[in-house]
Amino acid sequence: MVKASTVQSGTTPSFGQPTGTGNLLVMLIESGSPTQTVTNDPAWAKAVGNLATDIWYKPNSAASETAPILGTFSSHIILLEFSGAATASPLDQKVLVTGAAGVTPVTATCPGADANSGSLICSVNQTVLSKSATHTSSETYNNGATATLLANDDASSTTTHYRFGYGVTTGNSAADSDTVATDSMNLTSIRVAIASFKPAGAAPPAPQPKPVLVMTAVSRAAVR
Fold it and tell me: What's residue 210's pLDDT?
């Protein structure tokens, strides 16, 4: 189950409908501040973000949650609620990549593979053009996940465009990646932020072995 709000702006976004219990809440932000904060609820944490693309999350939601209040104005915000995610420590992998001028597509690849298949991927993409124009963007995930478009403003004539998406993996043989492209000839940069979240019932991390102190016998003669 996924519930999504409309795209909003400002510092006080709202959920599309009352939240349920035990779900994962996610906030996607484009054109936010690098120092963006949530001021009213310390349970919200930033998964990844900087330079105007942020992904925030809160696990194990309560019924009828109060929406997060942001410390700085953001141009485009969407609030999401997902069922079926881990209720404790759900964040698995994350990455943020910024492409160079004129480079399309741009691929953001997480530093490691997810611990489990069936992970949720959320993404925020920002395309910056050298002059106001419309464009056509596309987005592709790997690991069997279909990139479901939540919202974009491709049809608006502007210099900065956003794209919000999500998907669910069917495998974890490779690190999650998100490939974003534009057909614009006036490309300044494409910024791609993605985060993956563990499914409910995911296996906990394997315990690390404890160091073993080995005592060796030393002859009395050797230490004289």
Answer: 56
